[in-house]
Amino acid sequence: MASRDAAERAAFFARREAAAVLRRVLRGDAARRAVGSIKSLVYSPTVRNKRATFALVCQTLKYLSIIKEVLASSGVLNGKWKKQEELVYVTAYDILFGQGTAVSGSAEQLIMLHKDTLKTALEKICARKKVGCVEDLLSKKTAGKPKPRFLRVNTLKTTTESVMEDLNKIHMVDRDDMVPDMLVLPPGTDLHSHPLVTDGKVFLQGKASCMVAGALCPKPGWKVIDACAAPGNKTVHLAALMNGEGSIIACELNKERAKTLQQTIRRSGANNIQTVNGDFLDIDSNNPSYAEVRAILLDPSCSGSGISTERLDYLLPSHSVDDQDDASTSSRVMKLSAFQKKALSHALSFPSVERVVYSTCSIHQAENEDVVNAVLPLATSLGFELTTPFPQWHRRGLPVFEGSEHLLRTDPEDGLEGFFIALFVRKAAASGVEEPGEDKSLGVRGKPVRKRRNGLGAFSSLRLSRIILCSTGRF
């Protein structure tokens, strides 16, 4: 009896956590401005029962169109409950299609009170659509081919050898043959609750994502800007490549995502990062405070078309609508492309910057090659040239302009997410510099982390209402 009560209580709280995540997912999807993927929202520190919450969110989304139709035909979701509709959706899924465990709770009581009515409505829908079971009503959305589980060792806290020794006790672990401090595990390996992950010694980060900071290859002691930093995995990767030396200014405009960025930094143990809750475009590149910036990582807002499977976007209500349109030329992608060109031009304008990486998790030419090609004349006039990161990588840019062979693409066919990377290097700084992939020792390991503070300086528009400086050096 005690174990049953505990299970019912766990289900009760998991539904509330799932409803909170579902609310953010659905609102972001409706506005086409998601604050995070389903996975990132579920696996945030604020969610306690991650496994149950993740299952409930995914399954509720899978059955959502059916649940909505059943609730509408039965009249259950009226005025009062419209304000808590996500909780009703989750509870309806769990009781009608899931484990069916219900305890005292207003939403549970609502669904249990109308359970027979809802089941009758469901039977009528099946009969009207001439299907034999509920599963036949589900859309045939696919999760795609499983990919290996990649993880990056956080060398600010531990060593690759130590992590391999620990994980090899229970998992089959291999080193990646190209990206330093990257390990490869079998598909489906779940490490979200592993102490190495929760302690920040390991980050569950895809190989393509790790290639971005690796391409920038900042040196210890440099001053670096991460222009669109949240959720922060690339930011803390930069800190590790720099051995915790020098300084990183991490910009993030969205207030909620800025909080996620700070959580990531705290977990990593990096103490040379300062976060800016503000717009990278507001930074005055000619301000003396930024005269020593030598590298900029620009991973701006994009369509996310290269990681839609990893984000579980195929579960979202908008997915079927997007499939009917030519997403690569949609008005949203064109607006993103215009912003990306503006941001890249701004990154290249910093007077002392030597290396700029432009990256997206998009597969669309409009956000990738077209952006680089449009900005290339400006880059050339400022003394920059395209350089080849990870030259041993086989997949390069689409051949749409001269020099596109320097660009880098990854693709699901490679067992990776769909990413794009362009590396601009100022000619005066290019001589004698070893590009990523030529030498696997990106920086010297094992030096103690050293705390340094650097002033963030002025912003061109001085929009102080939008810009909050949040020093994370004390963590």
From TrEMBL:
<dbReference type="InterPro" id="IPR023267">
    <property type="entry name" value="RCMT"/>
</dbReference>
<dbReference type="GO" id="GO:0003723">
    <property type="term" value="F:RNA binding"/>
</dbReference>
<dbReference type="GO" id="GO:0070475">
    <property type="term" value="P:rRNA base methylation"/>
</dbReference>
<feature type="domain" description="SAM-dependent MTase RsmB/NOP-type">
    <location>
        <begin position="139"/>
        <end position="427"/>
    </location>
</feature>
<feature type="binding site">
    <location>
        <position position="299"/>
    </location>
    <ligand>
        <name>S-adenosyl-L-methionine</name>
    </ligand>
</feature>
<dbReference type="InterPro" id="IPR001678">
    <property type="entry name" value="MeTrfase_RsmB-F_NOP2_dom"/>
</dbReference>
<feature type="binding site">
    <location>
        <begin position="228"/>
        <end position="234"/>
    </location>
    <ligand>
        <name>S-adenosyl-L-methionine</name>
    </ligand>
</feature>
<protein>
    <recommendedName>
        <fullName>SAM-dependent MTase RsmB/NOP-type domain-containing protein</fullName>
    </recommendedName>
</protein>
<keyword id="KW-0808">Transferase</keyword>
<keyword id="KW-0949">S-adenosyl-L-methionine</keyword>
<dbReference type="InterPro" id="IPR049561">
    <property type="entry name" value="NSUN5_7_fdxn-like"/>
</dbReference>
<feature type="binding site">
    <location>
        <position position="279"/>
    </location>
    <ligand>
        <name>S-adenosyl-L-methionine</name>
    </ligand>
</feature>
<keyword id="KW-0694">RNA-binding</keyword>
<dbReference type="GO" id="GO:0005730">
    <property type="term" value="C:nucleolus"/>
</dbReference>
<feature type="binding site">
    <location>
        <position position="252"/>
    </location>
    <ligand>
        <name>S-adenosyl-L-methionine</name>
    </ligand>
</feature>
<comment type="similarity">
    <text>Belongs to the class I-like SAM-binding methyltransferase superfamily. RsmB/NOP family.</text>
</comment>
<dbReference type="Pfam" id="PF21153">
    <property type="entry name" value="NSUN5_N"/>
</dbReference>
<dbReference type="InterPro" id="IPR048889">
    <property type="entry name" value="NSUN5_RCM1_N"/>
</dbReference>
<feature type="active site" description="Nucleophile">
    <location>
        <position position="361"/>
    </location>
</feature>
<dbReference type="InterPro" id="IPR049560">
    <property type="entry name" value="MeTrfase_RsmB-F_NOP2_cat"/>
</dbReference>
<keyword id="KW-0489">Methyltransferase</keyword>
<dbReference type="Pfam" id="PF01189">
    <property type="entry name" value="Methyltr_RsmB-F"/>
</dbReference>
<dbReference type="GO" id="GO:0008173">
    <property type="term" value="F:RNA methyltransferase activity"/>
</dbReference>
<dbReference type="InterPro" id="IPR029063">
    <property type="entry name" value="SAM-dependent_MTases_sf"/>
</dbReference>
<dbReference type="Pfam" id="PF21148">
    <property type="entry name" value="NSUN5_fdxn-like"/>
</dbReference>
